[in-house]
Amino acid sequence: MALRLDSALCWVVLVQLLGLQILAEPLKEAPVSLSVVSDVSNEAPQLYHTSALPRGSLLGALKRLQDANSDFKFTGTEDPDYGFYLESVNGVAGSESDHTYWQILTDVHGSPTPIDVGVGCYTPKPYEHIILKLTTW
Questions:
Q1: 30-136: what fold?
Q2: What letter does residue 26 receive in the DSSP assignment?
Q3: Chain centroid offset of residue 42 CA
């Protein structure tokens, strides 16, 4: 009986140590590219590069980009029910009177599609291309 108890305790200690080792490893950031485009103006698209943490949100990647690159700025508001709402990118805001807003798309294999959740919930994949597009409704 004592041998079984010792074996069980060894397994518990080993599992705990392995778990701590996994938690101690640094998270590896994945590269993400981001384009800012407009359907409303004739401005050339702007391309940026940032990174996202594993299981991290697009909002985190946007904040990381804004902190690292003074040419990229964004603003938004936090809704308690629906999360972060993107309002402006690089000084250009969406407008109710002009019927414009910032659409967020993912470009997988050259086929841009709108993301189905907000920037606070969307998790970019490594090497994914995100498009912030000023467009009309």
A1: Ferric Hydroxamate Uptake Protein; Chain A, domain 1 (2.170.130)
A2: P
A3: 27
pLDDT tens, per residue, the chain with 137 residues: 554 545 545 555 545 545 555 555 567 889 999 999 999 988 899 999 999 999 999 999 999 999 999 999 999 999 998 899 999 999 999 999 999 999 999 997 889 999 999 999 999 999 999 999 999 99
Which residues does residue 100 pair with via DSSP β-bridges, in sequence order?
95, 136
Closest by CA position to 78, among listed 59, 53, 56, 93? 59
Model confidence, pTM: 0.78
Partnered with residue 131 across adjacent β-strands are: 35, 105
Per-domain residue ranges for the chain? 30-136
Residues found in the chain? 137
Query: Are the beta carbons of 124 and 52 closer than 8 angstroms?
Result: yes
Q: How far is CA 92 from CA 38, 42, 75, in A?
A: 10, 13, 10
Q: Which helix (H) or strand (E) holds 108?
A: strand 100-108
Other CB atoms within a 10 A radius of the CB of residue 102 amount to 21
